[in-house]
Amino acid sequence: MKPSIPKGTRDFSPAEMAKRNYIFDTIRRVFYTYGFQPIETPAMENLSTLMGKYGEEGDKLLFKVLNSGNFLEKVNREKDTKNSEQITPESSDRKPSSDNCSLFIDSSDSPSLNRLAAQLCEKGLRYDLTVPFARYVVMHRDEITLPFRRFQMQPVWRADRPQRGRYREFYQCDADIVGTDSLLCEVDLVQMINTVFCALGIRVAIHVNNRKILSGIAEVIGQADRLVDITVAIDKLDKIGLDNVNAELAERGLPAEAIERLQPIILLSGTDDEKLATLRQVLADSPTGLQGIAETEFILKKSSLLVPDSEIILDLTLARGLNYYTGAIFEVKALDAEMGSISGGGRYDNLTGIFGLPGVSGVGVSFGADRIYDVLTQLDLFPKEATEGTRVLFVNFGDTEAAWSLPVITHLRKAGVATELYPDASKMKKQMSYANARGIPFVVIVGEEEMTSGRMTVKDMQTGEQTKLTPDELVSMMTTTD
Amino acid sequence: MKPSIPKGTRDFSPAEMAKRNYIFDTIRRVFYTYGFQPIETPAMENLSTLMGKYGEEGDKLLFKVLNSGNFLEKVNREKDTKNSEQITPESSDRKPSSDNCSLFIDSSDSPSLNRLAAQLCEKGLRYDLTVPFARYVVMHRDEITLPFRRFQMQPVWRADRPQRGRYREFYQCDADIVGTDSLLCEVDLVQMINTVFCALGIRVAIHVNNRKILSGIAEVIGQADRLVDITVAIDKLDKIGLDNVNAELAERGLPAEAIERLQPIILLSGTDDEKLATLRQVLADSPTGLQGIAETEFILKKSSLLVPDSEIILDLTLARGLNYYTGAIFEVKALDAEMGSISGGGRYDNLTGIFGLPGVSGVGVSFGADRIYDVLTQLDLFPKEATEGTRVLFVNFGDTEAAWSLPVITHLRKAGVATELYPDASKMKKQMSYANARGIPFVVIVGEEEMTSGRMTVKDMQTGEQTKLTPDELVSMMTTTD
Predict the structure, then answer these.
(1) Helical pair B237-251 and B227-234, crossing angle rounded to 10 deg
(2) Cβ proximity of B340 and B316 under 8 Å
(3) Which candidate in A77, A79, A87, A101 is best for mutational testing of the B interface (most B CBs within 10 A)?
(4) Do A327 and A420 sit in the same domain of this protein?
(5) What is the pTM of this model?
(6) Number of domain units in chain B
(7) Which of A366, A450, B218, B277 is the most exposed place for a label (fewest CB within 10 A)?
(8) Rounded to an integer, what distance in angstroms lies between the CA atom of residue B332 and that of residue B112?
(9) Domain housing B312
């Protein structure tokens, strides 16, 4: 039997874990300094919590967990109620019919397939961290003091078709502030995004947009219900050019007049201030649009004072999350790598309404660990210390030498130095190649001479240099060169 | 709609997370200093990897994940092969029969229920970290240098009946050394267990036993195949007393003569040395038993030199994991709390044999985070610093004051001090009660006077004391009192 893992999932080796933990630790440390507090929610949520929250496509991508025990119980019960005279042939003489399942289903008929899935499964794996967070806020509303600044770093699961860079299990790192509509929160998040990427050494551009501006645009060209069509087309400007964008808009059914009015928006350019000035003219008749402009101006002005390291750009083509974002929209792109968005977020006005708690506004940001990993790899930005495991290996020459070494090893570990004794008295060559394979920078040799003199031979594996050190000298060397 | 979570699962609040992270961080730090390296494996494994590894009972407790897309496909395909003439009534005129599922199943018949589950589901949630680790070692054998010291801290899922202290989702923290049978590894783990609990401030007794001693005992009383019966009964000595243990042994079918010969073992007492001496006499005719004694003596002798803080006890009643442990067995009990085992482990000689890679011996230890949490709570041992979130809250009096405060906040955060600005210019009282509810120790007030003088009012929330500080003084106070 050759073991394997489900497609779209991954094992992480120690070397990969070291790099991933460097990313997670950096993000977590920044989250803490910005006053965010961690929560965790279960991997499994009730399907009633998850279904209908991610659109029809999302429902299909939920991993469903088979009810434990007799998973046909619910299928039967429902059949008994609806169609109690139906009895399966072989069972009738042996058991009460409720123990039996007789199932006729056209499995190419998705509504009946969905119905059956809902009878077989009550639970599903979480699809993102936002819906579980909304559920959390509602369930724990009496314990939470608003505004609530929470972060969450946990895996999510999606039954997407796996492909390069897209996995069925991946971590999300989310930070949200809920219970206030203060724009200072948006400013806080922009600044935090900047702090995270500065700490990681990645130069980024933070793209900012506002749902209200997009709504205003759709409104003033008389196409209020075509927001998504418009932004999807505009978003392609860089890739396909103006003519093709206009063609696509026409194809999507926008009248020529509306497309005409849209031109100054599609071609909007200049500094952020100039863009805002143009927009203020174009959207003069849309109160929503004007509010979006005012919000964006506030966010850009305050942020530019606090975030000198990152580019902040007003980007009208930014149209992520239009299903839920109601105000600011953020997206972060690495300047020195071709990677798409490595972080994003926005404001949603009614996070918890769907669970019966209206009026809770929130704004959040999510960091994409996998893409950040790829950027750091491309740009060779992982610091060497972050990927180091064991620092000192003691060679094992036999029982006596091992016994002599153990207290020294204990001493090093107490001082926080990651130290191992090779467990077997194998050939020196084998032990040295273990040190090499593990990337252990220092090897300590304790033989007869060393035990007599009390000075161990310490070999720097990179330079090959050997020195003779007492246990105390070794500890002090390992704790000061750190 | 009132949201809820699946039974047996939990949300973790910020306060709980702080305490849990204190435990995980402590254990992780110790793992690193002992040269262990982290890996992670997917939450979902193929059911073929998991099934049959945890006994029949374990198979039932696996959470199975419904195949995505048309989950009836495999049910149909198999039916088509086996019983191709069977066509469901309503489908015959509309679709090819392979799109339809006609299912007659007696759901009280578990073999056919299991067969159906295997058709509906190919994946399951991991049940422990050991089997995925074994699978990992086999899959990645070409990348791994043995001996391999790995740790893993991830949740596992079991469809157990939820009850007090038993959850359907819980974290395991495992450290294992595989690829060597050196007893120095057992010594390393005993020492590491001691280091972890010293760091947490929990006084423990480390109980040690050896599968080979138990086998030797069963052998010399002529009941080699009754190992489990014997140890289950012996294990109850403390609870039910000698007479009842003997009665239970008789009930389990042990002959009177065997029970008679077992008495010196059941009543074994004295120091570890005395116990070993008695055992050496009783097991004189069992080579396996004598090897178990020699191994145990080595582990106890070496450990007692390195682990002065913890009690180490030879405990023959310790009989956990007899399905897989082949040598040393460990179990850790808190001395000052009634809690049962808070950590345990042992040596298994053939971890990866089941996946086609024989001859890989390993020894490991697992820490029970939930029980450790309960012990620390009972004994009030969580350090105050470990549970502190935000350290400084800036009160918000309006735009001007907020704008004045933001650069100071940035300065504090850069110095690593967790700092927030209250996002709204709400009433002072509301902002102060937010600080109280969050347990924030310092509140900074910036009003007109403070902006003019450049000295902020800093209130110590515990003492109520107020001081006037410049931004630099505030940063230096926050970073030195840490």
Answers:
(1) 140
(2) no
(3) A101
(4) no
(5) 0.92
(6) 3
(7) B277
(8) 42
(9) 14-45+125-378
